[in-house]
């Protein structure tokens, strides 16, 4: 039976994959998708959402409800939301042995399928505590663990099918050349494009394991392979896509008609580079930190306007964020290095955007709420001169001038996120 999952048709034109759990970001993305009348792929990673809550405190079911509640609020059809599970496997349990880590992983993918996630990245690329530390994790072991996880997904899907004969079948992404979620920690990783032999070996061994585990019919549900096309970002650096360096890999993909590449860490790539990636077979473009980085830019810009016009009762979002990050350093301390000045600047402006972990903090949320209220009062009094808006929000100034966005605090900030999404829609040919 043909898979009716909307991604099956959509991916061959290119699909942005928005990997985020931030409420304002999701709201901005759904509002834009509503205007474009298009489906949208929103993903959560295993460290964000899992049976133990992840760093967001949400299970897969919680995440679905969270996204759907935002969709209802903005009037977006939830049937046009495709939920994705990113890095689902032993990622957050790599310190455990295989039996324990895989037990947790099986429960995780089961919950994802049960919650209605329709795109699942089966990531078993990480070593576990009882793997040989001085040897490369074999493709055979990676594929075996992946096949075991897919077996659990299929079992859970069959249970759903009994309840609803119209239930859409999930599709899967495999691959062992998986970049670190959230960007690299190294200044210069000496990035190498995936070798053709490694890509083809991944397909061959996974297919063998599918046959071995009685999953031959499910091979058609594997729509893509994660490869390294030569893109990555760190605190200060961006590795931009070089289609010449990826030419051999791109050519090799043409032999496999129903398989595409999924590219991770595509954040901060110019829109022309993103389009080249889609043209060269990287049809799923994952983006995460760049979205919250853009949100932070918008909030900082509003704060600058607030600072220009108010001497008291300010929200002081920038200072509040810094205070909370210093009081709770766990999410940035291991990632930002150098002098105190270096770390101060990284907390604000690093591409890896560790401040995204703090935006749901109650004190920071209250600061954002107050900032929006202050700016909206200033707008109502016509205190924000066009030149002031242009100074701190030049792109949004042009959209306000041209009647494309409302002069409202939250709309101005969310447009920073929309500007990122516009680059991905350009790459995918969405007008």
**Content of β-strand:** 5-15%
CA distance, first residue to last residue: 32 Å
**CATH third-tier fold name of the largest domain:** TIM Barrel
Order of helices and strands: HEHEHEHEHEHEEEHEHEHHHHHHH
**Uncertain runs with pLDDT below 50, 5 residues or more?**
none
Number of domains: 2
User: What level of helicity do the residues show?
Assistant: 40-55%
Using DSSP, what is the number of strands?
10
CATH superfamily of the largest domain: Aldolase class I
Summarize the biggest pleated sheet.
8 strands, parallel, barrel
CATH top-level class of the largest domain: Alpha Beta
Q: What features would you highlight for this structure?
A:
15 helices, alpha/beta, single chain, 2 domains, two-stranded antiparallel ribbon, GI Alpha 1, domain 2-like, TIM Barrel, 431 residues
Topology:
Elements lengths: L5 H5 L4 E5 L3 H14 L3 E6 L14 H15 L6 E8 L9 H18 L3 E4 L16 H25 L7 E4 L21 H17 L9 E6 L4 E2 L4 E2 L7 H7 L6 E4 L7 H9 L2 E6 L1 H21 L7 H11 L12 H10 L12 H19 L5 H7 L1 H8 L7 H20 L3
Parallel strand pairs: 1-2, 1-10, 2-3, 3-4, 4-5, 5-6, 6-9, 9-10
Antiparallel strand pairs: 7-8
């Amino acid at each position: 039976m043909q898979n009716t999952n909307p991604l099956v048709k959509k991916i061959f034109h290119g699909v942005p994959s928005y990997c985020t759990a931030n409420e304002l970001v999701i709201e901005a993305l759904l509002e834009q998708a509503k205007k474009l009348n298009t489906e949208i792929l929103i993903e959560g990673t295993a460290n964000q959402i899992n049976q133990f809550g992840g760093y967001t405190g949400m299970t897969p079911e919680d995440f679905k409800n969270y996204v759907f509640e935002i969709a209802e609020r903005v009037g977006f059809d939830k049937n046009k939301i495709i939920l994705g599970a990113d890095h689902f496997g032993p990622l957050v349990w790599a310190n455990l042995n295989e039996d324990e880590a895989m037990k947790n992983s099986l429960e995780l993918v089961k919950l994802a399928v049960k919650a209605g996630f329709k795109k699942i990245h089966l990531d078993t690329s990480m070593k576990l505590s009882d793997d040989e530390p001085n040897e490369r994790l074999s493709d055979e072991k990676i594929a075996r663990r992946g096949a075991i996880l897919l077996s659990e997904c299929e079992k859970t899907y069959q249970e759903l099918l009994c309840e609803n004969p119209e239930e859409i079948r999930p599709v899967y992404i495999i691959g062992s050349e998986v970049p670190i979620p959230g960007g690299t920690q190294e200044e210069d990783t000496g990035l190498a494009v995936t070798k053709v032999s490694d890509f083809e070996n991944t397909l061959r061994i996974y297919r063998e394991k599918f046959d071995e585990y009685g999953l031959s019919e499910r091979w058609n549900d594997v729509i893509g392979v994660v490869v390294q096309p030569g893109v990555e970002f760190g605190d200060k650096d961006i590795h931009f896509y070089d289609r010449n360096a990826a030419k051999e890999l791109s050519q090799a993909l043409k032999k496999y008609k129903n398989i595409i590449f999924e590219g991770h860490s595509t954040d901060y790539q110019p829109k022309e580079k993103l389009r080249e990636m889609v043209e060269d077979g990287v049809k799923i473009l994952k983006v995460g930190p760049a979205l919250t980085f853009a949100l932070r830019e918008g909030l900082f810009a509003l704060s600058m306007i607030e600072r220009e016009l108010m001497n008291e009762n300010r929200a002081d979002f920038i200072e509040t964020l810094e205070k909370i990050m210093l009081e709770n350093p766990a999410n940035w301390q291991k990632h930002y290095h150098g002098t105190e000045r270096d770390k101060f600047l990284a907390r604000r402006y690093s591409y890896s955007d560790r401040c995204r972990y703090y935006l749901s903090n109650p004190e920071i949320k209250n600061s954002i709420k107050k900032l929006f209220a202050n700016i909206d009062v200033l707008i109502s009094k016509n205190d924000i001169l066009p030149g002031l808006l242009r100074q701190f929000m030049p792109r949004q100034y042009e959209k306000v001038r041209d009647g494309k966005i409302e002069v409202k605090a939250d709309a101005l900030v969310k447009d920073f996120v929309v500007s990122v999404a516009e680059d991905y829609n350009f790459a995918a040919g969405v007008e």
